[in-house]
Amino acid sequence: MSAAVAQVGAGALFALGAAGLAWRYRLGLARPLVTAALRAAVQLAAVGAVVALVFRVPALAVLFVAVMATTAALTSGSRLRGVPAARRAAAVAIALPALAATAILLAVGAFAWTPRAAVPTAGILIGGAMTATTLTGRRLLEALERGGDELETRLALGDTARAALAPFTRQAVQTGLVPAIDQTRSVGLVTLPGTFVGLLLGGASPAAAARIQLTVLLALLAVELVSAVLVSELVARACIRPGERIELPAAPAKAPRG
Predict the structure, then answer these.
(1) Same structural domain, 51 and 64
(2) Per the domain annotation, does 74 fall within a domain?
(3) String of b and e for 196-223 (b: at least 16 CB within 10 Å)?
(4) Nearest to 219 by CA among 115, 99, 39
(5) pLDDT range class, residue 191, cuts 50, 70, 90
(6) In a domain, 5, yes or no
(7) Are residues 160 and 202 in the same domain?
(8) Is residue 137 within 8 Å of residue 227, measured between CB atoms?
(9) What residue numbers bound the domain in which 238 lies?
(10) CA dist., res. 147 & res. 145, Å (int)
(11) Is the pTM here over 0.70, yes or no?
């Protein structure tokens, strides 16, 4: 049996096993799990073909990164319903830090100015920024929904609108950064990140793989922090009205299952 067949077969077995377990315990997740697995297979096959083309035609790299950033903004923005111009806010919070960090890594020579290095680096940073933006934004919206009385009390006691919102934004940023901090603290002890494993499978030495993974992880930590701060600031600004009034956005829609 070839490695390719074994890999596809093992992946299908895990997906079916997860769906079967979800069905057995009546979790309502069997169909979403199968659908997610099928979508992942189709999308990865398509992306693999596109990336191969990008590697052959370097000018397409910029377009490909732009598509990734746009998709991330649309995905994250859809989770922030109720916030005016939610997708625009998500685009700023995701693209600005992720693309700036990618440019810095390339400019200082940490990675080569080639599509083979730039596209995966940008993809990792955009993905991390999207996660931080979504988690922070949703946490802030949920906190504001529950904390209306507290906000009114702070305003009545003389706080400015920004000061009244500050505890909520700080808590949201802290929550949004938990996965990134945990991933960085536990790397090598609990998990071996994808970049590290991929480099090892590609023939890189363990030392080189560890060095590159560390660079990516630390850049990712900074990017996610900036994304979390940016989205919390943009959501807070969207709530402030003239006369130091706070108008809470509509309650965020529940995340779709699966």
Answers:
(1) no
(2) yes
(3) beebbeeeeeeeebbebbbebbebbbbb
(4) 99
(5) low
(6) yes
(7) yes
(8) no
(9) 59-246
(10) 6
(11) yes
What is the pLDDT, as a whole number, of residue 202? 73
Closest CA to 164 of 143, 180, 183, 178: 143
The answer to whether residue 13 is domain-embedded is yes
Give the mean pLDDT of 195-208.
75
Percent of the chain whose predicted confidence (pLDDT) is above 70: 94
What is the H or E stretch that residue 216 is in? helix 206-239
Token pair recorded at residue 253? 């829609």
Instruction: Please tell me whether residues 71 and 190 are part of one structural domain.
Output: yes
Run of H or E residues at 237: helix 206-239
Q: What is the mean pLDDT of residues 34-38?
A: 94
pLDDT of 252 strictly over 90: no
Report which residue type is found at 76: S
Q: Residue 66 in contact with residue 101, Cβ under 8 Å?
A: no
99 shares its domain with 68: yes
Of 181, 161, 179, 182, nearest to 240 (Cα)? 161
